[in-house]
């Protein structure tokens, strides 16, 4: 692939690349010609095999993104060993479901640490490295429909994803004139392990499907292809934008 949508010659670090949306993003980047540094806390053999089948270059890095200091150290080490890094996709995320009256402080903190705190400090690490090297960079943060809506029984997740959108806009304001594009994708309902509980509930599954104009749940590749656009030259004048990839959910 060449031209405005090519990632040939570019290295992209994707967090949470072991499964689901992160794996879909890694594969889309690989198909667009990019090299992927996949980060996760669990085994990435499946992603590595899928990337190999696409003849795409993949480097697996193990890290616990629940610790911001470890996340930053991982990024700096990856830049030194496999970089420079052209793009960062902050996809790693967790969810804890409980009524607002029952959510524990431990669950709240766990969600915020991975979804928001680690996301910001990885952006910071990318910004520091790119600015020091005088290099352009692309950052894509994975937001959510709950960056716009309240949701139910996911207070920590809603708060964290609202924060992701706010930080995306703040960083765009600070870095747009310095050659760093910071944008976000807000996935709708995607078939991943994070939505397994919803899909296992027949009533919830049908209620959600009924509202999606496209008539189907999304797949990880739907998010991956949108990420390629935001990482590629085609989106060069986009800063602080959020792209809903939701099958029309927000339009309903």
Mind explaining what this structure looks like?
- The chain has helices at residues 20-31, 45-53, 68-82, 105-133, 155-175, 196-200, 202-211, 220-231, and strands spanning 11-15, 35-40, 58-62, 87-90, 137-142, 180-187, 242-245.
- With 252 residues, it is an alpha/beta fold.
- It has one domain (11-242): Rossmann fold.
- Strands 3-2-1-4-5-6-7 form a seven-stranded parallel sheet, sandwiched between helices.
- α4 links the parallel β4 and β5.
- α1 crosses α8 and α3 (68-82) runs parallel beside α4.
- The radius of gyration is 17 Å and the shape is globular.
- The N and C termini lie far apart (35 Å).
Describe the structure concisely.
This protein has 252 residues and is of the alpha/beta class.
Please name the CATH architecture. Answer: 3-Layer(aba) Sandwich
Whole-Å distance between the termini? 35 Å
Question: Radius of gyration over alpha carbons?
Answer: 17 Å
| Helical content class | 40-55%
Instruction: Kindly state the number of beta strands.
Output: 7
pLDDT < 50 runs, ≥5 residues: none
The CATH top-level class label:
Alpha Beta
Neighbour order of strands in the largest sheet: 3-2-1-4-5-6-7
Report the total helices.
Answer: 8
Strand content of the residues, in percent? 15-25%
What summary fits the major beta sheet? 7 strands, parallel
The residue-averaged pLDDT reads 96
- Class of secondary structure makeup: alpha/beta
CATH topology: Rossmann fold
